[in-house]
UniProtKB/TrEMBL annotation:
GO terms for cellular component: cytosol. GO terms for molecular function: sequence-specific DNA binding. One of its GO terms (biological process) is regulation of DNA-templated transcription. SMART domains: HTH_ASNC. The lineage of its organism: Bacteria, Pseudomonadati, Pseudomonadota, Alphaproteobacteria, Rhodobacterales. It comes from the Bacteria. This is Leucine-responsive regulatory protein. It holds the Pfam family HTH_24. Keywords: DNA-binding, Transcription, Transcription regulation. Residues 5-66 form the HTH asnC-type domain.
């Protein structure tokens, strides 16, 4: 089911993407609404699953995470059980901050955070590769991030 969005909904979405901590009063004023209709619109988008939550963005370096990498993973096979086990492994590993099934030579791309390159190597060797689910992996260290988060485009 597709949620119908009007210009005011898009304005509210842009505002919450820019500042998820904004007060209802601030959102209402910026969108040209009173608080009650603003709250109803946001509640409708939350209930529809369009707004999936609110999070704080943290600086990984200040958390001691100085090694970020994209790891391309090819599974040993494409059996349903293998894919389900890999999904469980990914879900349990907090160092894996993103995972996507992709087209091309790899099956998945993971974004992994670690303290340093040695910590990343230990994690890969003792975790991902030791699982018996991975046939091949290729790691690309992130040297510099020029864009780490941006609002989703709100197209008509």
């Amino acid at each position: 089911m597709s949620l119908k969005l009007d210009a005011t909904d898009r304005k509210l979405l842009a505002l919450v993407q820019a500042d998820g901590k904004a007060s209802l009063q601030d959102l209402a004023e910026a969108a040209g609404l009173s608080p009650s209709p603003c709250w109803r619109r946001i509640k409708r988008m939350e209930e529809a699953g369009l707004i999936r939550g609110y999070v704080a963005r943290l600086d990984p370096k200040l958390l001691g995470l100085h090694a970020l990498a994209y790891v391309f993973v090819t599974l040993v096979d494409h059996h349903e059980d293998t894919m389900a086990r890999f999904a469980r492994l990914v879900g349990q590993e907090e160092r894996i901050v993103e995972c996507a099934s992709v087209t091309g030579s790899a099956d998945y791309i993971l974004k992994v955070a670690a303290k340093d390159p040695e910590d990343l190597e230990r994690f890969l060797m003792r975790g991902i590769l030791a699982s018996g689910l991975v046939r091949e992996s290729q790691t690309h260290f992130i040297l510099r991030q020029t864009k780490t988060r941006s609002p989703w485009p709100l197209l008509d």
